[in-house]
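Homework help board

Subject: predicted structure for assignment chain

Our instructor gave us this sequence and asked us to write out the predicted structure in token form, then describe one feature. I got the tokens but I'm not sure how to describe them. Can anyone check?
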Amino acid sequence: MAISLTDPVYGNYVLARAKAAGVETKGRKYLSSLARYPGDPKAWVQDISDVKRVCREGSMSCTGAVEVKGPAYLPEPKEGPNLAEDIIENAILNKLIDNPELRPGFKKRIPEMREQVIEEMAPEH
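My token output:
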């Protein structure tokens, strides 16, 4: 699906994300079906070879005008907790905001604080 010209807010958002990522949009189309998230700069494609490349890099299947066979299986889940980095970083920041006594020399304790956050917040496996 290409950017809808009837939705200028989303179109402007997608264009801004591409510009911020240094992606040239002239002569390209944004295909939201290739995007991993709204505004994904990798979803800007120029031709069929771009579509195939994005599908392969993202382990996606594609059927229709372009045919790409994705992986036949899902990769094994990674060991350890399943917690996004931005959540961990925000939790550490909140700990530092709520506990001023932790601020002096906090950079040395980031690995320790990271482990504490993961232990407290990560879902059980």
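Reply (TA_rk): Your tokens look well-formed. For the description, you could write something like this. The chain has two domains: 1-73, 85-121. That's the kind of observation they're looking for.
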